[in-house]
């Protein structure tokens, strides 16, 4: 599993222009060495789901490790004729030196949690905003959608088939990577197999059938070529009258005598529930009970759920545009907000952004994020956001309270408290332990299993608790009061 | 305007795996040299609009020019252990040799038209399907959405601000390029300026304001740094009580004495219609009638239309996630279908894909695409799809007819017939004339102006005529009949 993306365009300049105008302004105003804290968090789960899946951290790491301004970048910035020459020289010698904490890929995440925190000189911490958000927003969006679709399939295989409708090459490649984290078992995107080891799958398009003189001839040619993995597309002309009978004929004539079993048939149009049930019977009667039926064509979690409820005989699903763009909600709304500034003595001054819209008020301070698991059931009880130096002692009872309705309190006992984030950069150096994509995917499945079923419903899920520690709540409340009066 | 993307990962392997299994099968079945015709077309306009905007041809050209299998690709394919060794050697020496015709970027396009046609050996013409669709689908989607938003703004500037919510780096960079073609005047995406010359714009985020001791201090620092292009973000605390008064104070204290005029203020939250009207009055009273007001925050064509209808005093719009992902409909459903095969004598055998769903029946044959313009008004009357060797003689009356309801006929006179597509590859060599992005953008605006207003409505637009020539209709009808009986 080699990564050939090292050759890729340096993406340092994939940044909003205002990050540079601000950086230049911080520099000339003497803030070059001011240490700040930024948090990434999101406000709601796409599709009104109960949780999202964190993804994209590996690509964020690659971006941060490769941050460097090329000669062309420097020329470009100088040509803008609005930046201070000393600032440009600073960029020429730019060396990323921030600390970064992140929730590991594959973890279920919830609104308002600081899923990433960056600590470092304001010029740097500000500059990386655009790519940090782009990377995590994109992959978390797709991993979250994939996880919904995979759950709808109830253990059946889901393959990512959407490259041709992806929003750009990275949309296809990294989207397929994220879909794998979320639980897909493979992709049609060959380059994602080559670079990330996500198994590439696929057999034939309708054009294969059309090119031959007949469907039967096309099937025969395919079966001869790929006897050990022969999946035939049966809907070019007529699934039940032509496709399935021809497939059975070819299985019998080309595979069985050579000691092979058919891999499957694929249905890509029509009423798949009806067709798959009829096709199943035909295959079974012909002695091909082991021949799988694959469905594709504008699928998503809702259609798959309904098809299975109506008894569709489908063993695997190929899901395209609705997965690779998360078309029902194609935006993961992560934001990146200033939460603190260090003074000359190194004291952290908490920063808050006030808004008339209560949901848009940020949580100040350098923070930590904990997940409490019930020791008996293993289920996740709640997440707690604390000050960075607080420790949740799970040998003692802990009182949770709703930060919006503080009279709602609940004491938990017999739980395990886990720090949810890991430090991935220290003084600009990556210290994250490398993780295999299969390991991330497995971790994701296990973590989703720790959620109560109520949280995993597609519609109207139970809202998982994300609470603040008393100390953090006190600081936030004090800052709000100070701003209001 | 240099393009540094040459360094980018070779995207040859960004292809659906089945393109390779089919290619191998064509090869081993003796179809390596079979010449085929494929068309790209789409079935409906996103957002139920009246037309789409073609975009992405330049990136398709770059992809086709760089088609080559690296040593690593070949190793990967060999490791799959299902491909014929002669086929792998063929790929090692792969040289693209197809002819390609495409509608130029910036052109309004309509459903069922062959916007791209590829002629060449089936292995090649099939192989490029995924990237051809991905590239054109993505950029046409965004150019189409941008054009809607720009029209809603009625001449006011629209800037693309969505990088952080884009689906991957290319989603941001090429999305910004496509948005420019569709009519945006600039982008926040710096790298898109460096590489494509799309003017990068942007001033400050809320974090800039938060970092200083006060909003006033933050504004002062910014005005001193950028006196000639000073746009201040006025909604961090309170637009009317704090933001605008502080901006006016700073304009007066920092800009006017030094001979500068303010560039603008930006409002990013709250009821922008109300706030902009109040802010306009305050700025005017202070003698800053020339100070522009920029609005941002979850905008799209509908919100902009409504804001302007309600008298919002906004001079420019920054549009983010709803543009860069086309969030109301994030998929452009272009497809790529076989339309003909040459026999040994070079005769073109037309191919059709039949479907119970009438809209999914393809149009066979090697075709050409014409647009008829009224000589008097300059307006586009209809598009006509003909056989490739038909000529529409615009010195004579021409009879249009509806291909679905053939009794609907109309004879047009005094028109100009223009072939809509240009040949961009001949025997695998690019022969497209290079076009400047500004030129494409201007061409787009002019071409949209040739559409009747009825066609450009956001909702329920008039359906523009896309007709078949009598000869083409006859072939299609004959093939349908042959398949049915």
Number of domains of chain A: 2
Q: Taking Cα atoms only, what radius of gyration of chain A do you get, to the nearest Å?
A: 26 Å
CATH-derived topology of the largest domain in chain A:
nicotinate phosphoribosyltransferase
- Reported CATH architecture of the largest domain in chain A: Alpha-Beta Barrel
**Strand residue content of chain A:** 15-25%
Number of helices of chain A: 16
Helix content of chain A: 25-40%
Q: Structural class of the secondary elements of chain A? A: alpha/beta
Largest interface, counted by CB within 8 Å of the partner chain's CB? A-B, 105 and 105 residues
User: What do the pLDDT scores of chain A average to?
Assistant: 95
Report low-confidence residues of chain A grouped into runs of 5 or more: 1-7
Total strands of chain A: 21
Strand order of the largest sheet of chain A: 13-12-1-5-3-19-20
The first-to-last residue Cα distance of chain A is 58 Å
Multimeric status of the protein: homodimer
Shape of chain A: globular
Main pleated-sheet profile of chain A: 7 strands, antiparallel
Q: Tell me the name of the CATH class of the largest domain in chain A.
A: Alpha Beta
Function (chains A, B): Catalyzes the first step in the biosynthesis of NAD from nicotinic acid, the ATP-dependent synthesis of beta-nicotinate D-ribonucleotide from nicotinate and 5-phospho-D-ribose 1-phosphate.
Organism (chains A, B): Caproiciproducens galactitolivorans
GO molecular function, one term (chains A, B): nicotinate phosphoribosyltransferase activity
Domain Nicotinate phosphoribosyltransferase N-terminal (chains A, B): 13-137
């Amino acid at each position: 599993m080699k990564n050939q993306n090292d050759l890729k365009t340096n993406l340092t300049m994939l940044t909003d222009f205002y990050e540079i105008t601000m950086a230049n302004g911080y520099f000339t105003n003497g803030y070059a060495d001011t240490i700040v804290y930024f948090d990434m968090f999101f406000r709601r789960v796409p599709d009104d789901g109960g949780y999202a899946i964190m993804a994209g951290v590996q690509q964020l790491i690659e971006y941060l490790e490769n941050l460097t301004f090329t000669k062309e970048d420097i020329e470009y910035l100088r040509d803008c004729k609005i930046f201070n020459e000393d600032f440009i020289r600073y960029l020429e010698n730019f060396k990323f030196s921030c600390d970064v904490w992140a929730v590991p890929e594959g973890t279920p995440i919830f609104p308002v949690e600081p899923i990433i925190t960056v600590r470092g000189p304001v010029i740097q911490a500000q500059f990386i905003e655009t790519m940090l958000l782009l990377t995590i927003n994109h992959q978390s969006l797709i991993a979250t959608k994939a996880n919904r679709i995979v759950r709808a399939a109830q253990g059946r295989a889901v393959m990512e088939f959407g490259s041709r409708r992806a929003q750009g090459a990275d949309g296809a490649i990294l989207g397929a990577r994220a879909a794998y984290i979320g639980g897909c078992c493979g992709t049609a995107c060959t380059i994602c197999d080559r670079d990330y080891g996500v198994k590439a799958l696929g057999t034939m398009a309708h054009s294969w059938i059309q090119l031959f003189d007949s469907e039967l001839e096309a099937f025969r040619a395919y079966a001869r070529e790929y006897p050990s993995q022969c999946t035939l597309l049966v809907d070019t002309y007529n699934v039940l009258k032509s496709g399935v009978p021809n497939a059975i004929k070819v299985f019998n004539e080309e595979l069985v005598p050579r000691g092979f079993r058919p891999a499957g048939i694929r249905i890509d149009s029509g009423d798949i529930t009806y067709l798959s049930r009829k096709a199943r019977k035909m295959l079974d009667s012909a002695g091909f009970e082991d021949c799988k039926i694959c469905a594709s064509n504008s699928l998503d979690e809702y259609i798959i759920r309904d098809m299975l409820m109506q008894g569709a005989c489908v063993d695997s699903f190929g899901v395209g545009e609705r997965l690779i763009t998360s078309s029902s909600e194609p935006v993961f709304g992560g934001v990146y907000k200033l939460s603190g500034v260090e003074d000359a003595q190194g004291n952290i001054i908490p920063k808050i952004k006030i808004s008339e819209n209560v949901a848009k008020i940020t949580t100040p301070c350098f923070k930590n994020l904990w997940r409490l698991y019930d020791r008996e059931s293993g289920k996740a009880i709640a997440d707690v956001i604390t000050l960075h130096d607080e420790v949740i002692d799970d040998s003692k009872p802990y009182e949770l309270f709703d930060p919006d309705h503080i009279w709602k309190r609940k004491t938990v006992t017999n739980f395990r408290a886990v720090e949810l984030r890991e430090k991935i950069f220290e003084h600009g150096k990556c210290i994250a332990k490398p993780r295999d994509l299969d390991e991330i995917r497995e971790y994701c499945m296990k973590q989703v299993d720790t959620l109560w079923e109520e949280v995993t419903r597609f519609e109207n899920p139970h809202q998982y608790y994300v609470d603040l520690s008393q100390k953090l709540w006190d600081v936030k409340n004090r800052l709000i009061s100070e701003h209001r009066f």
